[in-house]
Amino acid sequence: QVRLVESGGGLVQAGGSLRLSCVASGSIIGIAAMNWYRQAPGKQREFLASITGGGKTNYVDSVKGRFTISRDGAKNTVHLQMNSLKPEDTAVYYCALGINVPHSYWGQGTQVTVSS
Questions:
Q1: For position 96, what pLDDT does the model report?
Q2: Please, which of 48, 71, 82, 95 could form a disulfide with 22 given CB 3.0 to 4.6 Å?
Q3: Exposed e or buried b for every residue in 82-108, given b needs 16+ CB within 10 A?
Q4: Helix (H, G, I), strand (E, B) or coil at 60
Q5: Residue 113's closest CA among 35, 40, 28?
Q6: How many angstroms separate the CA atoms of 50 and 69, rounded?
Q7: Is the model's pLDDT at 101 over the cut of 80?
């Protein structure tokens, strides 16, 4: 039983920044990889970034240099710092647990809206 809860979404103007957080709790064995995805209305869910238990990060090209994934010392919270936001970043942002795809555990998502 794993629970993931995202927070930090909101409405921001283009060029602005938001910092998303995802807190994981429950029966998590070891130090799990964590991931961020997003889904805009009418579009497929899109992988954004991941961080392994050892701290290695990976990003999709469209957010490379703008978004940064990190985790805290307790290793149960992951963040997504989003800078230079664009209207096309508007989506529901989800965190997911683990290295296996499809992921078994997802948060409920947090809405990010970027106005032009």
A1: 96
A2: 95
A3: beebeeebbbbbbbbbbeeeebebbbe
A4: coil
A5: 40
A6: 7
A7: yes
